[in-house]
What we know:
The complex is a heterodimer. By secondary structure, chain A is of the alpha/beta class. In chain A, 45% of the residues lie in helices and 19% in strands. Chain A has six helices and five strands. In chain A, strand 3, helix 4 (68-76) and strand 4 (86-90) form a beta-alpha-beta unit. In chain A, helix 3 (42-52) runs parallel beside helix 4 (68-76). The model of chain A is unreliable at 1-6 (pLDDT under 50). By secondary structure, chain B is of the alpha/beta class. In chain B, 50% of the residues lie in helices and 21% in strands. Chain B is built from 13 helices and 18 strands. Chain B has helices at 12-26, 36-45, 62-72, 87-95, 108-175, 184-214, 227-244, 264-281, 347-357, 382-404, 424-438, 462-478, 504-516; strands at residues 4-8, 29-33, 50-54, 77-82, 100-103, 223-225, 248-253, 260-262, 287-297, 304-313, 362-367, 371-379, 408-416, 445-448, 453-459, 482-483, 486-487, 489-497. In chain B, helix 6 (184-214) packs parallel to helix 9 and helix 11 packs across helix 12. The model of chain B is unreliable at 337-341 (pLDDT under 50). The interface between A and B is medium-sized, with 21 and 23 residues.
Amino acid sequence: MGEENSMSNKRILVVDDEVDLVETIRFALELEGYDVLVAYNGEEALNQARKENPDLILLDLMLPKLDGYKVCRLLKFDERYKHIPILMLTAKTQEKDRATGMETGANEYITKPFEMDGLMKKVKNYLK
Amino acid sequence: MENRVLVVDDEREIRDFLLRALTRIAGFQVELAENGEEALKKIEKGKFDLVMTDLKMPLMDGLQLITEISQSNPEILTVLMTGHGTIDSAIEAMKQGASDYLTKPLNLDEAILRLKKVLEEKQRFVRLKDHADQLEKANLELKKLDAMKSEFVSVASHELRTPLSAIKNSIQLILSGKTGEINQNQTKFLTMADRNITRLTNILNDLLNLSRIESGKIELKFEEVALKSLIELTISSLRPQADMKSIKIISDISEGLSPAHGDKEKIEQILINLIGNAIKFTPTAGSIYVTASPLSEEREGGPRHKIAISVKDTGVGIPEEHLGSIFDKFFQVEGSLHRSVSGTGLGLAITKGLVEAHQGKIWAESEVGKGSTFTFTLPVSEGERRELRFRYILDREFLRAQKNDTPLSLFLIESIGKKKEIEEESLNELELRIRQSLCRKGDLLLKKKQEKMLFALCEADLKGVQAIRQRMEEDLQKNPIKTMDGPLSIKIGVATFPMEALSKRELFRKAKAQLRK
């Protein structure tokens, strides 16, 4: 406990075009002691990720401007950023969507709606 | 409806005669033209159902007119009037599209009868065509609607997920106490809201699954599925639910059950739905039995081997009048929906769709107050199917040989060498070669997976068998089958029936004994 606070806080980028959803996730993450960055579209997400180099990204799939698949691919195929764990959050539930998601190099594929506790545990696991 | 007829003839008397006769007797609406030119002009202006024309006319003869009309106005019927001895022209006219011909001098009764017949036929054709067009249009419309419906369900269920997600997260945040303390009643009602979001999500998932199944978009990943372990695994995952109602779940599946050919995840879903339902509808301290056994159906072109899986409960049962509808969408037996039993009403429809995607069948038997049994079938895995088929044919041939005293021979072909596993490819080639060598009635081959051994059964006496064997060996010596470890060496064991072996077992024993030599 309190490991995160011993050094500088871990930083998480939350990407979703649904402001409300972003707010709930941001709130929960901040309570866990993380610093939260947000982006509401794919382009913003990519810029933020490149500029801020976060420790983890929660990425929605269907995003304006640049979809989540592309954002994920652009980061995962870049030597500088491929180490960042990306957890995809999506309303797409089809098996082939999951397959596409995994092909782009995402670490997890989480379908909406999800359990908050479960998500927090997964985030913690990746940041160990 | 009055038929409009155009009479074309250069002889005035005939025109006038036909005008009167066809108007009065047949009730047609008649117009006249004295040559082809005039006829074409009239056709351009007005609508005619039928044109009857003389053959011999100046400028343009009847044949030319008919050809012209069938090109420019194919919907208009044409009938040629010919003199005696001009049957060739009549045939030519029919080739050009005329519906019929009449010979001059005209027999009025016959002429009217034939004209009416031609017109009636046309009307019937038009009606049928209209009908077909309408049906086709309606069908197209329905297909479009159906695609739209599937698309709608899919989009709607995706679109609903995101707002649901925000609601669920908010409720869970408050419930966790992270936003401040909440009292007992607040906890109670927020828990209720959370539970219902889960329920809503389940309905969404079911709807989406069903629309995928219905639109044929379901993707199955076929593989060999070991049912015993899958069933036992599913039962253990549902046991906590059953334990809450002190329901016993007993499974009885023999170790030797053939694997099924299917999509493991989908079969698991079928089992979860059926066993889950059984738990729902069985009162406290009841029991559920899950069994699986082979089922062979006699069909044209050989037997079909299936596996029948049954889930039997000691539940409330289903009234007979509802047994036919329980697999329908949103159908729930009235009064069965206790407060403790809530579902989407889609479970069995999905289950049925999944079973049918496996070319299987599902049905239910039930007695009110005693319980229900749901049974579904799955195809046997490819390899197993071949073996079962082999056994079936072996039995059949053996019986036939016994009855008719025809010599029957069994070959056992086994690879020798250090390597236990031969690659599939070389095995296939071996199979092909042996098939070619056998070339006598009754050949059959089968791969036995574990042993990588081939069986062949053919009608041949001892002499024939030796010849076949020699042929096989020579062929393999000349063109050895290459494997990664060098050429494939094989051993052949043979036994014949009824001369040598006394029983099927004996047949195998003898053939196997030869292999060991």
